[in-house]
Amino acid sequence: MQSGKVKYSIKNKLIMLSAVVAVPFLVMVIYLLYALRGYSSAYDTIVSNMTVANNYNLNFKEEMDESLYKLVVGAVTFESIRQDDTLQDPYELINELRGEFTRLMTITTDGESRAWLQILMRNADTLQDRVDDIKENLDAEKSYDLNIEMLDNNIYILTELVQDNIQHYIYYQTKSIEHLTQQLNERVETFTVFCNILLAFVLLLVIVLTMMIVTGIIRPIQELSEVTRRISQGDFTARAEVETEDEVEALADSINSMTESIEGFVHKIKEDEGKMRRADLRLLQEQINPHFLYNTLDTIVWLIEGNDSDKAVNMVVSLSEFFRLVLSKGKEYITIQEEELHIKSYLKIQQVRYRDILEYEIRIDPRLYRYKILKLTLQPLVENSLYHGIKYKRAKGIITVTGEMEEGRIRLRVEDNGVGMEPEELENLQAEIMKPCKDTGKGFGLANVNERIRMNFGSEYGMTIRSEAGKGTVVDILIPAVPYESAETLEDGDQAGNGHF
Question: Where is pLDDT greater, at 251 or 120?
Fold first, then answer.
């Protein structure tokens, strides 16, 4: 199967298995929620109706009877009754009763309850007529006994009937709740039986599908595991044969392709490691230059013969420090502080030889001392400035080494005011340092430093060169700010200076 061409995706298989499990239960849940919502709505409606009716059942008769009695005995009038907080206007009571039960009529569904609501509404109309009669009698100032008789024979009886109508309505609403509960229980029982049957069917189907899918995944993975085990032991002839038309087969094809190229990668890595070792060895050999050693020893002898033993001792100490840091116990990385001591030792030695033309200044921020740097990063740059910049100037020159943190990265700079380079010469050198050091015709030291930085830290780091004829050269080194946690920070009193003995 071609890589990326998946016919039966494992994802689709698992989705299908999930759908087989989920869809039936999702349908059941939706149906159950819909049914429960319907029952809940019906139940809430009935309870709300009963609450309204029960409120009137408790208060209506008492409030109506008391208010009409006070009107008949002359304690209040129809005009002043609203001012008494303990009494209600009979007409307002009847209108509220009619409004509430008219609303209940629109939402009540069972026939018996509606029938009692209709009777209640007729009784409310009759009650209002009797209240009208009492009001007319009071306005006409008819006898007190007549109004009392109307209260006893009409009003009290009608309010009693209204109360009975409300109680019958509440009774039949209660019956509706019982009927609703019975329906719910019947449906729950039916739904439970259906769920058990569906669950058994789905469980059987899931077991079958799961066995098929798991077997189709586990068996090829076991074969891949065996192939990768053989590859890890160095057997690059191992191949996986999987025909499942899914991601496992695509993975097997990728492993087979990887196996075909992994041996080439191994050879390339070994070649790169060898190249790096040769580059490090060549750079080390460049630093242990016999001419440099001979000239330094000759200078020491010359100083001794000239009875300048202090300078001779200092030069021997600097030479010892120089070679100690060159070797560094075979370490590839050292601290920036150690690298500073290395170039300081080198410059002290060279300043004795070239005292008439060489001055130097080192200004590396002490906060950078704890960060790591590749050994022999700055010394080749300083040497290049001396031999190709200051030496040919035929006058006093200065080499300045600086270091600072820049947006989370470290920038180190070696600058001289030597002879500099013409644009064409600078362009050729910039091209040379971008080549592998083994292919470099000139500027090996710079190319070696640049290649080692890029190979160890990444292509975004490395060296840049700027130069102008007659004005000097500036070489910048950019490296990541990586703390050297395992190295002990060296303590040296002479951290920065102008390098004069």
Answer: 120
- Tell me the pLDDT tens digit for each residue of 241-253: 766 666 677 777 7
Residues 6+ apart with CB under 8 A from 335: 369, 370, 371, 372, 373, 484, 487, 489, 490
Range of lowest pLDDT (118-122, 163-167, 269-273, 281-285): 281-285
Q: Which amino acid is at 185?
A: N
Nearest-angstrom CA–CA distance, 320 and 342: 10
| Burial class of residue 252 (count of CB atoms within 10 Å of its CB; 0-12, 13-18, 19+) | buried
Sign of CA dihedral 163, 166, 172, 174: negative
Mean pLDDT for 378-391 is 89
Contacts 24+ apart (CB under 8 A), 423-431: 426/465, 426/466, 426/467, 429/465, 430/465
Nearest to 372 by CA among 481, 468, 297: 481
Task: Give the integer Cα–Cα distance in Å for 344 and 491.
Answer: 14
Could you tell me how many residues make up the chain?
Answer: 501
In the three-class reduction of DSSP (H, G, I as helix; E, B as strand; rest coil), residue 386 is classed as helix
Residue 467 bridge partners (DSSP): 473
CA dihedral sign of residues 270, 275, 278, 284: negative
* Burial class, 324, CB count within 10 angstroms (exposed 0-12 / middle 13-18 / buried 19+): middle
In eight-state DSSP terms, residue 483 is B
The tens digit of pLDDT for each residue in 385-432 reads 988 889 888 788 999 999 999 988 999 999 999 999 999 999 988 888
Which SS3 state, helix, strand or coil, does residue 77 take?
Answer: coil
pLDDT surpassing 60 at residue 74: yes
406: left (phi over 0), alpha (psi -120 to 50) or beta: beta
Task: Measure the CA dihedral 405/406/411/415, to 10°.
Answer: -100
Amino acid at 232: S
User: Residue 256 — pLDDT band, cuts 50, 70, 90?
Assistant: confident
449: its two tokens: 């430093």
Whole-angstrom Cα distance, residue 466 to residue 267? 38
**Range in 9-13, 333-337, 383-387, 417-421 with the lowest mean pLDDT:** 9-13
Is the pLDDT score of 322 beyond 80? no
